[in-house]
């Protein structure tokens, strides 16, 4: 039977690449994104997908997304919590409104979307299981300047994933988290100056940014049966950034 995935924040960037990958593999694809016009643009690239305009951080909207998915496809096998916002600023300039805006989408959204998906995901306890993949960031693993809200939200996503894995394993729902390194999407380009881009190239053993498709490959793998005994794991898809220590560029020269 055809499997179904819901990918949040998939009107563009990493989410769109992931949605296209699932589609290529023959899955039913549902997409939730807050950006209506961007969703319309994505439509041509996602033939047959269910496109839902909505906000993952709104408790009153979230249950309706799943009603739509069930009506369109009859169930759900995997949820990819990818929707995210970035806002870089010094601690003293991060107003409570800016802090909340980041937390709402990046952390509250993952909690709400996962909780509301449970009734549909639990249906697969006896039939091969289901999966949740959350998208964190290398900024959730390593502290850096200007990321007080973003980095903290992503660290929260990593711990939330472990909580989900611990509790949902008995329902055969596998929960894993991906920490992407830098990818040249609209989100990253809004906060990465040329200096930041150069510094990343220097600090990353593969000496480059990743592509949307490279993150999508990992998302698909973790949702697939190829990963049937993998849960509670953090997978960094970051060109080696996480694994390396201080001083690597100097040692290379
Ligand atoms: P992007 O800005 O290109 O795409 C994010 C999408 O999420 C957009 O289409 C946006 O409309 C949607 N979105 C934002 N808030 C939403 C909400 N409340 N409800 C529903 N949809 C919402 O960004 P991207 O670079 O593709 O990022 C995808 C994920 O990857 C994010 O969680 C981001 O934090 C993470 N990430 C990105 C990078 C990078 O370098 N690009 C690195 C690490 C982690």
Quick recap:
The chain has 253 residues and is of the alpha/beta class. Helix content is 44%, strand content 15%.
Cα-atom Rg, whole angstroms?
18 Å
Q: Tell me the total number of β-strands.
A: 7
Bound molecules: nicotinamide-adenine-dinucleotide
Portion in strands: 5-15%
Distance between the termini: 54 Å
Net shape: globular
Please give the oligomerization state of what you see.
single chain
> SS-based structural class?
alpha/beta
CATH architectural group: 3-Layer(aba) Sandwich
Overall pLDDT metric: 95
Fraction of residues in helix: 40-55%
Tell me the series of helices and strands, N- to C-terminal.
Answer: EHEHEHEHEHEHHHEH
What does this structure look like?
With 253 residues, this protein is of the alpha/beta class. It has one domain: NAD(P)-binding Rossmann-like Domain (Rossmann fold, 3-Layer(aba) Sandwich). Strands 3-2-1-4-5-6-7 form a 7-stranded parallel β-sheet, with helices on both faces. Bound molecules: nicotinamide-adenine-dinucleotide. The site of nicotinamide-adenine-dinucleotide has 31 residues, from helix 1, strand 2, helix 4 and helix 6.
């Amino acid at each position: 039977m055809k499997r179904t995935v819901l990918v949040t924040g998939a009107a563009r960037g990493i989410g769109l690449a992931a949605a296209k990958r699932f589609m290529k593999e023959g899955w039913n694809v549902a997409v939730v994104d807050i950006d209506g016009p961007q969703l319309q643009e994505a439509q041509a690239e996602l033939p047959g997908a269910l496109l839902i305009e909505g906000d993952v951080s709104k408790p009153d909207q979230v249950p309706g997304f799943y009603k739509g998915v069930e009506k369109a496809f009859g169930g759900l096998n995997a949820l990819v919590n990818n929707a995210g916002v970035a806002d870089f600023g010094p601690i003293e300039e991060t107003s409570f409104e800016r802090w909340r805006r980041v937390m709402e989408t990046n952390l509250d959204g993952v909690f709400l979307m996962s909780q509301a998906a449970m009734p549909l995901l639990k249906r697969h306890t006896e039939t091969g299981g289901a999966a949740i993949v959350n998208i964190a960031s290398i900024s959730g693993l390593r502290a850096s300047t200007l990321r007080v809200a973003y980095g903290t939200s992503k660290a929260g996503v990593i711990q939330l994933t472990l909580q989900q894995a611990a509790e949902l394993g008995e329902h055969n729902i596998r929960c894993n988290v991906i920490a992407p390194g830098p990818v040249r999407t609209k989100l990253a380009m809004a906060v990465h100056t040329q200096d930041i881009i150069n510094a990343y190239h220097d600090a990353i053993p593969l000496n480059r940014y990743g592509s949307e498709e490279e993150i999508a490959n990992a998302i698909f793998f973790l949702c697939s049966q190829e990963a049937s005994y993998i849960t509670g794991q953090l997978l960094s898809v970051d060109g080696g950034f996480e694994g390396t220590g201080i001083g690597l560029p100097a040692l290379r020269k």
